[in-house]
Amino acid sequence: MNKYFIGCFAALFCSFNLDANLLVSPTRAELDDASHRSSVFSLVNKGSSTARYNIYFEDKLQLAEGGYRTVEGTKATLTKFVRYSPRRVTLEPEQGTRVRMAVRLPKNTPAAEYRSYIVFHQIPLTPAVASQSSDDKAETFSLSVTAYMRISIPVILRVGELNGEVTIDEVTNENAQTSLNVTLIRHGQRSTYGDIELFVETSLDGKIQLESVGSAKNAAIYTELNQRSFSVNLSRELKKGTEVIIRYTESKTIKDAKIIEKRIVI
User: Fold this and answer.
1) I want to staple 117 with a disulfide (CB 3.0 to 4.6 A). Which of 57, 152, 196, 236 is the partner?
2) Which range is the signal sequence, renumbered to this chain (predicted)?
3) Where are the alpha helices (DSSP H) in the chain?
4) Rounded CA gap, 194 and 257, in Å?
5) Could you tell me which of 180, 170, 192 has the C-alpha nearest to residue 231?
């Protein structure tokens, strides 16, 4: 068997190290130009081995279909304003540390919402060294591949008084009464994020109560998008003709957080 043929099947003999587990808090940092210009991230290595992380900022754009795309030079980048330390950490199992971050705003910074992502990217403890058998006629070899984790946390800075509204638009029965597709529309200068909840009214001892039948946590629409659709799984099957209350509650960390509702019949 020649080496070219063996190489085609190298992936079958790869070993992956997914043991690393980094706990990061908070999972979103929100700053403003008034009283909140700094934040502290707490890191804890929950894995069973020592891990090393590079820390840096990058910009991403949210995609309507879900996920994000890394970009460079966005107009609303926060990177140009931020200072942070340290930029590399090594943590033993169960060891923790802190990363401090602050923003420095130039005078006359335009009112807007700025956003970038702080990234905690695991790197090897020592450089990888490739080894090769001295026997050119060897017919077998092993390949070791290590997968390293990468965590991105959004950091949001709001400059000035920014308005924001959100409405519940289309609600459709997505999959045979096992889920509902809820479309939110964002208006204004700031992002929106919060929880979508589904309720039905039930009667108990003559009193109307709300029964939760589904939820989607941390539904977010950032400023590059005007709307997004979210699939909300139902906790039980609902009969045709049931009235459902859709409630969207913005995060309490948003200055003018709102709660909106819409009723539909499925």
Assistant:
1) 152
2) 1-20
3) 3-8
4) 9
5) 180
43 close to 168: Cβ distance less than 8 angstroms: no
> Fold for domain 164-265?
Immunoglobulin-like (2.60.40)
For the chain, which residues make up each domain, given as ranges? 22-126+146-159, 164-265
pLDDT of residue 205: 79
Residue type, 14: C
- Number of helices (H) and strands (E) in the chain: give both, helices first: 1, 17
- Which of 3, 105, 115, 96 is closest to 57 using CA atoms? 115
Biggest alpha carbon distance in the chain?
85
Report yes or no: 79 and 59 within 8 Å, Cβ to Cβ. yes
Query: At the topology level of CATH, where does 22-126+146-159 sit?
Result: Immunoglobulin-like (2.60.40)
Q: Which residue has the tokens 């923790």?
A: 96
97/105 Cα distance (integer angstroms): 27
Name the nearest CA neighbour of 30 among 19, 38, 42, 21: 38
Beta bridge partners of 103: 82
Which of the four pLDDT bands, split at 50, 70 and 90, describes residue 140?
low
- SS3 breakdown of the chain: % helix, strand, coil, rounded to 5? 5, 55, 40
- Tens-digit pLDDT profile for residues 59-114: 999 999 889 999 987 788 999 899 999 999 999 999 999 999 999 999 999 999 99
CA pair distance 210, 202, nearest whole angstrom: 6
Q: Given the structure tokens 């920014």, which residue do they identify?
A: 162
